[in-house]
Specification:
The chain is mainly beta. It has 4 domains: about 140 residues, Glucose Permease (Domain IIA) (Distorted Sandwich), CATH 2.70.70.10; about 170 residues, no CATH class; about 120 residues, Chondroitinase Ac, Chain A, domain 3, CATH 2.60.220.30; about 120 residues, Immunoglobulin-like, CATH 2.60.40.1220. The protein contains 4 helices and 48 strands. A hairpin with a 2-residue loop joins strand 37 and strand 38. It binds zinc ion (ZN).
Length: about 625
């Protein structure tokens, strides 16, 4: 059970300047393909996307009278971009441009960044002399530089706050029907029961006269405890699904939460998990799943305006004598709105016989938070900015399996961290897993257990022994266990060369095959010496093959000795295998030549040598 101090959040006021007067920024295309505040896989969409009908080269015009003050090029994001400071004080950034107008191009060629510009490298350039532009004047041409197909990305910002272009007259009339697809009711405590179960309840929505209704299969919703609501929806448009502009949640006609995409501070770009269920949302709007509640006790979310409580509905506040009406009002561009109204009944049932898991939940910014398993053998650390939501995250022990782990010994319980492949916690950070073990942990490691029972070692590079603790970094959830590897790997020569083999010259390669039942191999898994000196080998940890290629080394004619040892990730060492061979001087006998051809035919030496040289 928990309660948050809900900080009252006020929407940021728009600048005083007159709105609704900007000019459409692209000539020859008239559709919007992405709205402000939409879900993207790692951030909010901070601007609006305009269709270019899939074309490069359409004129991009300034939305307002102003000055071109900056030009950017970032191949991994915005591509070519122009920044105009409008006379009203708002900056407009136009992105993904194929090229700039003539005057700007000329300016850049004679500027201090002309070399970067001509070489098509990344840069940010502040114009030494800003170029005046009129509203509607061509500043550049549409393109697909940076990320995505040809389109125009437009942003409006001032003093670190990004604004919704719809409020400046862009896209008011774009967008058709607002579609509501489904709602999900989520128990917020371990003793919350929705229709008698401590589980999420998802309900499909059906279009009806003037709005949406619940799929009639679900006749009633009974509630005991505290529930939060998510809604999945979008707005139809000419070519795509658009994010919604605002959503309100009401209980018995009293508004309890407003979510409005008006403005967003740049510092909140990555706080999308406060608004979207990022586990289920897709950036193409299939679907956008909006949280109609706030777990944001830090006031980090500038989009939700809490009207009452935190948007969650408690059965304690429900009328017990009649249905309580929940309304969701969703707005798109152009003033289009759809609504959903459904009843919730207060449930007075006795569920004391039902055992529920006490799940944890946190939203914490700028601090570590941790979660421990019941036996304290596994502990998860969620670093700075980590976010995860209650009901979406839990650790369960897996007992009903018949997995065997060949070559490995199970040291811990098998833990399933749900949901699998959860990325909601991960805003560009890893979680840390700390394991505590009393036994000798020197051969132990953290393993991911695949659904078929295969144990895959979490890369050694990402964990370290830490006293009697053991720390591992995970980039995703899944099923994990601590296993120790006490089995030595084995090593053999591919093609079964016989000792005494003769090579025509010193440019040859030898392939070794490594086998390991346990922790497997990494790039440092083989130690090869030729005549006592360490030789280089290319290792494929997946196939367990190691190919010795020594193009730089010249071997004297005569006998040589190669010694190889395989080492698995846990440090277990194979027996050393010795391979003796002869490098021939002068002409070779035909039989030897034949063997040499067989050796080289399977793997062209030339390409291998090139590969090595490049490294
Ligand atoms: Zn965009």
């Amino acid at each position: 059970m928990y309660f948050f101090n809900i900080v009252s959040i006020h929407s940021i006021e728009l600048p005083k300047e007159k709105k609704g007067s900007y000019v459409w920024p692209i000539v020859g295309a008239d559709a919007i393909t992405g709205t402000f505040g939409e879900y993207r896989s790692s951030h909010f969409h901070m601007g609006m996307d305009f269709s270019t009908n899939g074309r490069r080269g359409l004129p991009v015009v300034s939305v307002s009278k102003g000055k071109i003050v900056q030009v950017q090029r970032y191949w991994n994001s915005i591509g070519n971009a122009v920044i105009v400071l409008n006379d009203d004080g708002i900056y407009t950034r136009y992105g993904h441009l194929s090229r700039f107008n003539k005057e700007l191009d000329k300016h850049l060629r004679s500027s201090t960044i002309s070399a970067l510009y001509k070489k098509r490298k990344d840069f940010t350039y502040n114009l030494s002399t800003p170029i005046d532009v009129q509203a509607g004047e061509t500043i550049a041409f549409s393109g697909d530089t940076g990320i995505g197909p040809p389109h125009l990305h437009l942003e409006l910002y001032k003093d670190g706050i990004y604004y919704n272009p719809k409020d400046f007259g862009l896209g008011h009339e774009e967008g058709e029907e607002v579609v509501l697809e489904s709602i999900t009711l989520k128990p917020e405590t371990s003793r919350t029961f929705i229709n008698g179960k401590n589980e999420d309840l998802s309900i499909k929505l059906i279009k009806a006269d003037g709005g949406y209704v619940l799929d009639p299969i679900v006749e009633t919703i009974l509630l005991q405890g505290i529930v939060s609501i998510q809604v999945s929806g979008y707005q139809k448009s000419k070519s795509s699904r658009l994010g919604l502009q605002s959503i309100s949640l009401l209980l018995n006609q009293r508004k309890i939460l407003d979510l409005s995409f008006l403005s967003l501070p740049k510092t909140d770009t990555k706080k999308f998990v406060l608004v979207y269920d990022s586990f289920k949302s897709k950036s193409n709007g299939q679907p956008f799943l909006y949280n109609l509640f706030s777990r944001d006790s830090y006031g980090s979310n500038q989009l939700s305006r809490i009207v009452s409580g935190n948007g969650m509905i408690s059965s304690g506040s429900l009328d017990k004598d009649k249905p309580n009406l929940v309304s969701i009002l969703a707005n798109g561009l152009g003033g289009n709105q759809s609504d959903l109204i459904f009843p919730i009944l207060k449930d007075a049932g006795d569920y004391s016989h039902i055992k529920t898991l006490d799940m944890s939940f946190n939203v914490k910014f700028n601090q570590y938070t941790n979660l421990s398993s019941d036996d304290h053998k596994i502990e998860l650390f969620f670093p700075t900015n980590a976010i995860f939501t209650r009901g979406n995250f839990q650790i369960d022990e897996i007992t009903n399996h018949n997995w065997e782990f060949p070559g490995l010994h199970l040291e811990s319980k098998i833990f399933k961290i749900s949901p699998e492949n959860f990325r909601e916690f991960n805003l560009g950070y890893d979680i840390y897993v700390k394991l505590s073990q009393k036994s000798d942990m020197s051969k132990a490691g953290l393993y991911e257990i695949k659904p078929d029972g295969r144990a895959i070692a979490v890369k050694k590079a990402s964990y370290s022994n830490w006293g009697r603790f053991f720390k591992a970094r995970l980039k995703k959830t899944g099923t994990f266990a601590v296993l120790s590897d006490l089995t030595a790997p084995s090593l053999s020569l591919v093609n079964d060369y016989k000792n005494g083999h003769i090579f025509s010259n010193s440019n040859f390669e030898i392939e070794w095959k490594m086998k390991d039942l346990g922790s497997g191999f990494d790039q440092n898994s083989i130690l090869i010496k030729i005549d006592g000196e360490i030789a280089t080998a290319e290792i494929n940890p997946h196939t367990g093959s190691a190919i010795v290629v020594e193009p730089e080394r010249v071997f004297e004619p005569g006998k040589h000795r190669m010694e190889a040892t395989a080492i698995d990730r846990a440090g277990n060492m194979s027996e050393s295998i010795i391979f003796e061979y002869t490098v021939a001087g002068g002409k070779l006998a035909s039989t030897n030549n034949e063997i040499d051809k067989n050796l080289t035919a399977s793997r062209p030496i030339s390409s291998k040598q090139e590969k090595v040289k490049k490294q």
